[in-house]
Amino acid sequence: MGTGNNYYKADLRDYKFLFFEQFQLDTLLGQGELEDWGKEEVETVLDGLYQWSCDVLGPLNGSGDRQGCRIENGRVITPDGFAKAWKEVYKNGWRELGVPPEHGGQGGPYSLYVATDEIQSGANTSFAMYPGLSEGVLNVVLKFGTEEQIKKYAKPLISGKASGTMCLTEPNAGSDVGSNRTKAEKIEGTKYKITGTKIFISAGDNDFTDNVFHLVLARTAEAPVGTKGLSLFMVPRLNEDGSDNDVAVGSIEHKMGINASATCVVNFGEGGNCVGELVGTEEEKGIRQMFLMMNHARIGVGTQSLSVASSAYFNALEYAKERKQGASIKNWKDPAAPRVPIIEHPDVRRMLLSMKSRVDGLRSLLVKLTTHTDHYEFGQLDDAQKAYHKGQVDLLVPLVKAWGSDEAFDICSTAIQVFGGAGYTQDYPVEQYCRDAKIMAIYEGTNHIQALDLVGRKLGQKGGANFQAYMKDFGAFIAANKDNETFASELAELQKAQQAVGGCAMQFLGWFQSGEMALVPLSANRFLKMFAETTVGWLLLEGAVIAQKGIDAGTGDKDFYEGRIASARFFAHNILPTVANSADILRKADRSCLEISDAAFGKVS
Amino acid sequence: MGTGNNYYKADLRDYKFLFFEQFQLDTLLGQGELEDWGKEEVETVLDGLYQWSCDVLGPLNGSGDRQGCRIENGRVITPDGFAKAWKEVYKNGWRELGVPPEHGGQGGPYSLYVATDEIQSGANTSFAMYPGLSEGVLNVVLKFGTEEQIKKYAKPLISGKASGTMCLTEPNAGSDVGSNRTKAEKIEGTKYKITGTKIFISAGDNDFTDNVFHLVLARTAEAPVGTKGLSLFMVPRLNEDGSDNDVAVGSIEHKMGINASATCVVNFGEGGNCVGELVGTEEEKGIRQMFLMMNHARIGVGTQSLSVASSAYFNALEYAKERKQGASIKNWKDPAAPRVPIIEHPDVRRMLLSMKSRVDGLRSLLVKLTTHTDHYEFGQLDDAQKAYHKGQVDLLVPLVKAWGSDEAFDICSTAIQVFGGAGYTQDYPVEQYCRDAKIMAIYEGTNHIQALDLVGRKLGQKGGANFQAYMKDFGAFIAANKDNETFASELAELQKAQQAVGGCAMQFLGWFQSGEMALVPLSANRFLKMFAETTVGWLLLEGAVIAQKGIDAGTGDKDFYEGRIASARFFAHNILPTVANSADILRKADRSCLEISDAAFGKVS
Which ipTM was obtained for this model? Predict the structure, then answer.
């Protein structure tokens, strides 16, 4: 145990396409805070990290899954090789992109940061959660911590001396964060006594950092009920003098996947002596502070989803090129015809292109989101422009998280199908990808929570301004391509889908106004899917138009461009036509599941 | 290890509804070969087996998964408790339904046999594969064996002294059965020397029977290439004198699921001394003989799929009734509103009813199939009537296997979603159901092989007579209900779907005739799904009409009937409207995946 084969496979060309051809990240590089960053620097990071991830993280992915985590003497023992890999991550500076320069980091574009997250997560999803969560905690500390807190907590997180976790969930407070019961009693100043049990704490402990910084949502005695009464506390495993704080890992979960990420029960204050520090100086700001981390984590889950889906695709593709089985359909009547690689079979090609189009689509969606972030963070913009970019990010977060994770699970399952029986065995990585992917639809806000966020908050945000701006951008693309004959049929499908999405958005408004509140959550998931698919259809077609120009100009890379065009065509003709159909179903709003009595759902014999 | 909780949950009421209200199995009972069978006998078997399965098989399901199988001294060691359970199965006579009375069995209706298969498989999928495969071997022996072979092999299989396996797959012959290379050289009479390696042999060995009867597809020296040159051999692990035959279990696979079912590599004749016996007296009849077992196994996989999907549904349902989280949507603005069981949330109800409608639908599809078999086997019919029933079975087998297994995987995944994070842990059975279910889309002919069977063989079988008879029955149901106002909107959806299916069947004919052969496999899976959904929509509505009559007549069981009606309505309004949409996509036949070059699929960096 401890090392095995690397199965991680990616095509970095796609990032280079998205960054520099489609989303024009280069317009932001070489100036202002990104003065030191050019195309070459971005590519160097991607290439170097990919190589390192394949060398170090990839070989630990399967072995980590088989070995899992365990508890010894009150601490989590991670799989063989993880501690060494952790040290290398920080020594090599692979997480410095997430750290501002004033704290010694590289402070590069967010788009690049997320790309590096995909690479680390694709090579080893479980491993990448440890530094990923630490970085989320770092962000909160840097943004909301006092100067003294930053001094105390940021450095160990940046150097990898400490790790971090986010502690929201309790036995009775999962999706319902507002039901949190963990108690905080003021001792003095920013010091509080913390008492409570948190569950499902990802990367909750490890054997490579002495200290673990837990960010804990808790409630002070006088605080109101619900999320508004929550405060956020930093609760380190070790006190400042190095003694043990009253924080104990109770147990770890045995799970379907991400087995090398320790999912912990963490008990705070069992002995009545757990000391935490209020983040910042004000109580009852916890949910807003935690949201920074949750947003980071939601984009992170979309990135994770992409990472396994993409590697599942490339593994399936390589297998399909090598594995011979059956004769070509052209020789279907001749039992003696030569056997061919299965990529020649139409159904295998269909599966592969359905995977590829969604992988390309999800990465496009993610880079659209991160580019908006980069414009917001690094662009020379007025307030209105800033608000526009911020609004687009808000709108896209639930899509990236929920559509991404649902599709990733399906893509990984399709990868198993391409492999056939071999894919069901642990001889190949795809069954693990599938098991790992399932949690992504659940944690950091279930996909229904994402859908509620979309229809209940994001659509109507700022009086609908973000959605309107989105629709305007969308319309501009369609208008700009109205004479495009190469993609005329695809653009027609896109326009139909866009109209369907617009109609459904109005339908939600109608339900809100008429008080038919139950129809909103009932239809929220369906709408999120339609909205995401339509957006992906748009971005893939935008990419295809660019790719076609590349082919026409003879600028090389014809295979890549052709693949991008095929993704767009496949998606336009196989996925987009379902959107208007979904809109019909949504608007008719079948109420059967609301009307059925609980008893009629059935009775166990 | 060895025992745990029973999580198996079923509602036997549904079988009683399907048998005696919808498909009128009782018209066949109490006469002819079913003289000793009445409603009461059928119910007694179901109730008794369910109780026993919950007591004995259910508690071994989780522990069997965790423990898995291993090889010791050349034999497979199954998980704790399996050997004891095997003995009880045969002592209690739970497999006697699959045995004709002349061989000491109970010879009951096939519908009941399949129902008992669901129960055993639902309680413990991996375990049920051992007796299930044995029974498949028994069927082949009884149907194709010589009198002497029946004498030799049937009794140990019936008593549970021996188990059986089906050995088709080889390293280079999976979906492509015709590429089988295992060699058979005649020694004398029916005795042959067998040499070759078979892989993915389910229930390939065990530690509860001394002898294992392997049914092996192999090729004699002069035989033609392809499936037509294959012969079938009985290759026992032990020779008649009790000495070891030259049969060795090489290794077992480490898999995503069904871990307690030993998936073996079996080597025949490594020492040059493996003796097999030709089944029957003629060579090159192997594929036809094996097809009996494959048909049995395909229906078995549909049954397995139903079994885990159904138990996943009931586990999710019970959890949803118990687990409190969040406030009712009616109080969405009040953070202090009381917490409610999650079954009150619209999205949870949507998930549950989407699961229930498909579970009800798959069971209806299966009982339709088995009722046709029962009419064929036990009805007093002329040849034309027999052919009709046989034809409907042929048509339905690929639907039950492929649609069943695809939906089962999705239903189990949805069950995890209902549980949230808890469902991802091994504290509940749903993650195992999901892992177990994935193989069902692959083995016994991948779901694409099923789709090819449907469009390439079954649609056109007997000049299309089977499909036409199906459409006639379908049309008769619609005609009989043309004035039904209660389900008018649902019937309208059904009719639209039926027309779409009919249109697509003609489209396939067109592609065959115009030589656009690649479009057939390209669209086969899509068509199978449409066809299955439309059939399920029909059967659910037929059930709903009966349930409504039951409610109107006040014949009790109102909850059950209401649930059946809700299933039909949900399916009609959420699934059936996608069928015509799929038909549009199918007919437009997007060729992007055929046109893309292999290189354009992408290149790993």
Answer: 0.98
